Description:
Elements: E1 2-5, E2 11-14, E3 26-31, E4 37-39, E5 43-51, E6 56-63, E7 66-71, E8 78-83, E9 89-99, E10 104-114, E11 119-124, E12 134-142, E13 150-154, E14 157-162, E15 170-178, E16 189-190
Parallel strand pairs: 4-10
Antiparallel strand pairs: 1-2, 3-5, 5-8, 6-7, 6-9, 9-10, 11-12, 12-15, 13-14, 13-16
Amino acid sequence: SAKVFDKTNKAAVINRKVTFDAAIPTIQMTSPEAGKIYSTRQSLRIQAQVSDDVGLSKVEVLINDQVWSTVTSNFGNIDTNINISGISGPKKVSLKAYDLSGKTMTLDRNIFIDRDAPTLTIFHPQVSAVVGRQMDVYLHVSDDAGMDRLNIFVDGQNVKTFDSGFSEFITSIETRLDVSQFSTGFHNVTF
């Protein structure tokens, strides 16, 4: 409160009730998961519980330190989706909470947004190649998010799967396939 006196000892008093705020906001983010790969064919779900002992004014969703969305109400349980179709690669997703006294708290998650399909180059067999009972295959695959597996099909039948140690971003593969179970004639080989 403030009290002012004039020369005749008359007083004017003003009282203000204020809240002292020493704590910063708290954030518990459950989505997105740190280190996860997200496809641009989906939106990115943001889920978090945000609180402050006095109150919040806003919560920003940032991608690589750029504001992507702002939440101005219902802070307790934030559950929102943001469109990620225009971005790719490694990204830092952050929630930044502002309390009523201006203090902030930021929580970051590093994720990977994968826009592109893997690239595949076939060196052998060539188009319309004639092969015997064994077919040599030489190929090169790459993907900016890493690869999970590679399947080779003959006439829609899976004849070989590569899936162990396939977390590489760039891989060259040389293999020999037994194709003796297939009849003589034209066959479709799909990689």
